[in-house]
Amino acid sequence: MLQQKDIRKVLLAGAGVMGSSFAQIFAKHGYEVILYDIAERSLEKARGVISVNQEAEVASGELTAEESAALVERITMTTSKEYFSQADFVLESTVENMELRHAFWREASELVRPEIVICTNTSGMSITEIAKAVKNPARFTGMHWVNPPHLIPLVEVIAGEKSSEEALQIVYDVALSLEQKPVRVYKDPTGFILNRLQYAIVREACHCVEEGYASLEDVDNVVRYGLGMRYAVVGPFETMDFGGIDIFNHVGSYMFDSLCNDGGVPPILKRAYEEGKYGLKNGKGFYDYSGDKAEKAFLHRDQGFIAVAHALKALEKSE
Q1: How much is the average pLDDT of 150-160?
Q2: Helices and strands per DSSP (H, E), number in the chain
Q3: Contacts of 217 (CB under 8 A, 6+ apart)
Q4: How far is CA 35 from its chain centroid?
Q5: pLDDT tens digits, residue range 103-137?
Q6: Closest CA to 50 of 63, 39, 125, 38
Q7: CA–CA distance, 17 with 21 (Å, rounded to integer)
Q8: What class is the 4-185 domain?
Q9: Structure confidence by residue, pLDDT tens digits, 202-234
Q10: Measured over all CA atoms, what is the biggest interatomic distance in the chain, rounded to whole angstroms?
Q11: What is the dihedral sign for C-alpha 160, 165, 167, 168?
């Protein structure tokens, strides 16, 4: 298989929010990028997104105007499938629909060269199941990025049942070359690792509000100023080491049984959905995002992510 050091041209399939970000990340790190989509209108939208993002990068001092121009120059946008045969690496981030993913990979895996690694970005779809439509699935893996990928560095490298160790290592090395923080995920569990942890917290957060233990604002603040700050520096296993395994074992003897173990979607989440509250995308969620509040919320979030990322980088340098 083609190793990371020999990869020059990357094909990114799907020009949505994630694909547009991927194009900039790969191009920023010197890769020649082909951003493919079946719809020209999606590519046109991606051009706009990339332009706005690059203006922000230059304004913030992250890139010079010359560096930004060179980055954009390395991105080719196309609706033509002829570029698949030229790619040294393929990352797909299309619609989260198994039938459509099968259709895409059934064709794409025939078009690409046999020696290259191909992977899919998905929040939780089975890599093993997607791979059933892939020719030579040993070279196929999952590569789950976190939105927004240009600000959050985690990448989950997921093994399907037939993924080879070599393919997984190449994807891991590609993530490292992009200055991301890759982790290996084995056995292809539903939701991988990040979403399993995230949804466990979401379930308990909903339960605490539904039971009247605290307001949703205060539950958010518990995570923001307590768990969030702690887990940005030390993970759960490190936390147990710092706090004392004996203490966690003792508290766990009565704490775990008191946690919510209900199956299904929590009632407070289901009600919000049924009431047409979809969050920032339509201005209505658990909070109000009418008017310019959604734009301000995105700006506040991204400024926070940038500040945390800078703090973590500074912490790593001091180690």
Answers
A1: 94
A2: 13, 8
A3: none
A4: 18
A5: 999 999 999 999 999 999 998 899 999 999 999 99
A6: 63
A7: 6
A8: alpha beta
A9: 999 999 999 999 999 999 999 999 999 999 999
A10: 61
A11: positive
